[in-house]
Amino acid sequence: MTLRSLLAILWFTAFHANAELPLHQLPSGLYGESLELAINPSEKTVSGFFESEGGYNPQTDRMTWRCSFYFSGKIKTDGDSDIVAVAVGLMNKGIFSKGTLTTAETPTPAVMLKLERILPGCSRGEDFLSENPPTIFFSERKKWIEFRMVSTRQSYFYKTPFVQNQTKAYVTCGDIVVVMDKEPKSDRVQVDYQGLKRATSGWIRQADLLNIGETPACRR
User: Fold this and answer.
1) Which of 125, 135, 179, 190 has a CA positioned 20 to 30 A from the CA of residue 8?
2) Largest Cα–Cα separation, the chain
3) pTM of the model
4) DSSP string covering the chain, please?
5) Class of residue 35 by CB neighbours under 10 A (exposed 0-12, middle 13-18, buried 19+)
6) Residues in CB range of 187: below 8 A, 6 or more apart
7) Is a pLDDT exceeding 70 seen at residue 213?
């Protein structure tokens, strides 16, 4: 057997192995240019953020349409996930859409996102209502565990998971953070938060976080 033949066999095996990956084995990270997806295999959860815009208007220097929403869900035994999607800006208004996130049968990791209804403010969202929604391909790996919502009026950042070294930085009720790491012996989780002006990283109390779609006590 020639080296070229051996490489071809290895490539063919890897090529088709990816197509059979269940949802909980897909990598967390960017899918396409619009989907940020966090998969937590240990807890069988998915969560993420979708944002797409277009139709640039040179007179206003703005895009003419945008579609953005957060979502979260639990992976089922067959590998798919039922999700709840909430439009940005309507996190606590009780306006949401149920949907599904499924693994696409493709040679490389990819997912399909389907919603039962178009969310308010989500222009050009008709594709998500289709029986065959667009396939979104994996593009870049990230160390994301899950997207969570802050449920208290203020949750302060700490420098480490154990020591009482609270910083001046904090997130507020309704903010969305990305969990990057968990310390089993601590009540804190490491998160990243992208604010309007800058990003903040550190450890905050896990008890201050809820799943996307749940109503925080500070907004009830």
Assistant:
1) 135
2) 68
3) 0.82
4) --HHHHHHHHHHHHHHHGGG--GGGSPPEEETTTEEEEEETTTTEEEEEEEEEEEEETTTTEEEEEEEEEEEEEE-TTS-EEEEEEETT-TTTT-EEEEEEEE--SSS-EEEEEESSPPTT-TT-GGGGSSSPPEEEEEEE----EEEEE-SSEEEEESSSSS--EEEEEEETT-EEEEEEE-TTSSEEEEEEE-SS-EEEEEEEGGGEE-TTSPPGGG-
5) buried
6) 205, 206, 207
7) yes
Q: For 53-64, how does the pLDDT look when each residue is reduced to its tens digit (9 = 90+)?
A: 887 788 888 877
Instruction: Measure the CA–CA gap between 91 and 70, rounded to whole angstroms.
Output: 9
Query: What's the angle, vertex CA 27, arms to CA 21 and CA 30, rounded to 5?
Result: 125
Please state, in angstroms and rounded to a whole number, the distance separating the CA atoms of residues 175 and 66: 20
- Residue count (the chain): 220
Spatial separation of the C-alpha atoms in residues 8 and 29, rounded to whole Å:
28
pLDDT of residue 6: 36
Confidence at residue 67, expressed as pLDDT on a 0 to 100 scale:
85
CA nearest to 87, candidates 122, 115, 117: 122
* Two structure tokens written together for 58: 């040179």
Q: 164-168: list long-range contacts, CB under 8 Å, 24+ apart.
A: 167/202
